[in-house]
Write a structure and sequence with these properties.
- This protein is an alpha+beta fold.
- 30% of the residues lie in helices and 22% in strands.
- Helix 1 runs antiparallel to helix 2 and helix 5 packs parallel to helix 6.
- The chain is globular.
Length: 301
């Protein structure tokens, strides 16, 4: 197996950005049309999803024929992420948004080695925001702006910079969640009961977070945590292609991803349960969040 040390990650990063821009033109130039549903009427796929993944996969296989590929639209139950160098792709993350002309839409392009995300590129072709990262080199918005956008007071000499305050309590947090396609059953109940606990008053046993947001794209949620416009993102039920690129970006921005179930600090990209926090978050905030999770998710890789 080719090791990370023998792979030009910067070249991979630059090629993924080129693909993202080309795919972005396909997305913005398309007239969204529903091609069908998967699990139910909330789990949507468009013709554009399929065309973009076809373009991305063919481009990557031509350039890197020896690397594996995992994409949302070509995934089959039982497929597993391996230790081999692998491109992990969501052609349109935010398909429901895309259909509704709600501009929180991205193409999410990740690259793993030994099952670890080492390159991430997330591009929103409607807002023209490009987030990218290479392991060990930091994370950036639109090539040059280092993430997070807020700066720790101790490292900034700019009086106009936005300070990055330490996050020491969920009561100071803006939290992202998503509803997902599963709308019944035990995992659904865990989600909605936990949402209520997060928002409830301290006096009633809740965390009284500032508020909750659902941007409709896991990749964009993760990038918002990376830039520190969101503080926390909790998710369960999505897949490696939803998280791979964003996880690489968030980690390079100084954030952390742990298990969405309580107790596991070592989350894997294909665990399907995640709790992501921005740079400057105290570990006690993770533990506080876990204490509010109303059960144990059954989702597994």
């Amino acid at each position: 197996m080719e090791s990370q040390d023998n792979i030009d990650l910067q070249e991979v990063h630059d090629f993924l950005i080129d693909i993202a821009y080309k795919a972005g033109k396909m997305i913005t130039g398309a007239n969204p049309s529903l091609a069908g549903t998967k699990k139910n009427s909330t789990d949507l796929v468009t013709e554009t999803d399929k065309r973009v993944e076809d373009f991305v996969s063919s481009s990557l296989r031509e350039k890197y024929p020896d690397y594996d590929f995992m994409g949302e639209e070509t995934y089959k139950p039982g497929d597993r992420l391996t230790k081999r160098p692998t491109f992990v792709v969501d052609p349109i993350d935010g398909t429901c948004n895309f259909l509704h002309s709600y501009d929180y839409v991205s193409i999410s392009l990740g690259f793993t080695v030994d099952r670890v995300p080492v390159v991430g590129v997330v591009f929103n072709p409607f807002t023209k925001k490009l987030y990218s990262a290479v392991k060990g080199q930091g994370a950036f918005l639109n090539h040059n702006t280092r993430l997070p956008l807020k700066i720790e007071a101790s490292t900034s000499n700019d009086p106009n910079s936005r300070p990055l305050e330490p996050l020491k309590s969920l009561s100071d947090a803006l939290v992202a969640v998503e509803w997902g396609a599963d709308r019944e059953g035990p995992d659904w109940e865990i989600k909605i009961k936990t949402f209520a606990k997060l928002c409830a008053s301290k006096e009633s046993g809740g965390s009284m977070v500032h508020s909750i947001r659902s941007l409709g794209s896991a990749a964009i949620n993760l990038c918002a945590v990376a830039e520190a416009s969101l503080d926390v993102y909790w998710e369960a039920g999505c897949y490696a292609w939803d998280f791979c690129a964003g996880m690489a970006i968030l980690r390079e921005a100084g954030g952390m991803v742990v298990d969405g179930n309580a107790g596991n600090w070592d989350a894997q990209v294909d665990d399907r349960r995640y709790l992501a926090v921005r740079k400057g978050t105290d570990r006690s905030v993770v533990e506080e969040f876990w204490s509010q999770v109303q059960g144990t998710f059954s989702y597994k890789a």
